[in-house]
Amino acid sequence: MNLENFLIVSAIIFGIGLYGALSKKNILTVLMSIELMFNAVNIALIAFSRYTIPQGMTVAKSALDEEIGLALAHGTPLGDTALNTLLTGQIFSIFIIAVAAAEVALALGIVIAIYRNRETVDLTNVNLMKG
């Protein structure tokens, strides 16, 4: 597998999420579509962190891959360069997952409040400006 494969999968998942967010009328379906888009971004970030070396690093990619391979095979500790390269995408993904969890909790609270007041979760029937 290479970077292009991961980016293609990420783009397809993002496209499915975007289609669902723009075309569906149920609030819960729109929320699930937004979560798909977040997860597509997570896949892309982790792929970039695995297959690219940050600008300004002077380490050759083959040397970095060799260091990571030795660490996986023999349990030797990673150096700072390899560790920073491996963890950048994961840290961004953890941040996105935390933001997505907060977004889902807030959105579901709003959906419950809308359902109690309007007795529907259909976006076309929900007009919050009406009394």
Describe, in plain words, how this protein is organized in 3D.
The protein has 131 residues and is mostly helical. It has one domain: Helix Hairpins. It contains 4 helices and no strands. The protein has helices spanning 3-23, 27-51, 61-74, 80-118. Helix 2 (27-51) packs antiparallel against helix 4. The longest helix has 39 residues, at 80-118. It is elongated, with a radius of gyration of 21 Å. The model has no long low-confidence stretch (mean pLDDT 80).
Can you give keywords for this protein?
0% strand, 4 helices, 131 residues, Helix Hairpins, single chain
How would you summarize the topology of this molecule?
Elements: H1 3-23, H2 27-51, H3 61-74, H4 80-118
CATH architecture: Orthogonal Bundle
Identify low-pLDDT runs. none
What is the tally of beta strands? 0
- Average pLDDT, rounded to a whole number, is 80
- Report on the biggest sheet: none
Task: Summarize the structure in short.
By secondary structure, the chain is mainly alpha-helical. It has helices spanning 3-23, 27-51, 61-74, 80-118. Helices cover 76% and strands 0% of the residues.
